[in-house]
User: What shape does this take?
Amino acid sequence: MCPNRHECFSHGTATFLILGDICTRKCGFCAVTPGTPIAPDPDEPIRVAQAARDFKLGHVVITSVTRDDLDDGGASVFAEVISELRKCVPNATIEVLIPDFKGRECDLSVVLAARPDVLNHNLETVKRLQDQIRSGANYKRSLSVLRYAAARKPAIMVKSGLMVGLGETDDEIYEAMKDLHAVGCTILTIGQYLAPSHNHRPVDRYVEPAQFEHYRERAIALGFQAVAAKPLVRSSYGAGELLKEAKTNAEVNNQHDKR
Assistant: This one.
């Protein structure tokens, strides 16, 4: 249901949803169907890689439903997909948008060991609204996932995303930005929440475009290396361009520090 599919694809970026289309959680904002998933498809990693090759993608985003039914939460499948992508599209950059794996560092390590270029895990909303919005997840755990990824050596880019319009205040958004930056997050997306149906959490407010620009400016001032903040921004919006911007800014900062 992303409004930016055609724009991103025209720039050589596409997102693949792995591990089926049924989620073991039921978040109040999400359009994915909750329920009991079937077993993972063992051929999925190679099929995703072949599709990325056929589409001539320059940046590949891999995300998934949450699979709390699997012992490793699907971490090994993420790693297999990354491995196959390296073979089929060796020049492409790879971003993974992962669930929290219930905070298990052993599973997170499996994904990180496969060396994606970007590790993305969305905080989604502010601390006060976590229990209402995110089924089975929590603020502290998500921050710990991002902190663990940011401490990984050699370093990878760490990314997260927030939605507005769920009932939060701007001050709470600024607090979440600070918390994300404090754990090592360097890339941030902020977009307007739009309810997928009447059965999902209703939209609390529609944020003006000028306020999104203010969010972006505040995030850059905090030290984020790349920020996308607009009403229709989603967590994978302009993902390839954001990575390039973050790398450029990181290099500029490194050169400045050496001086």
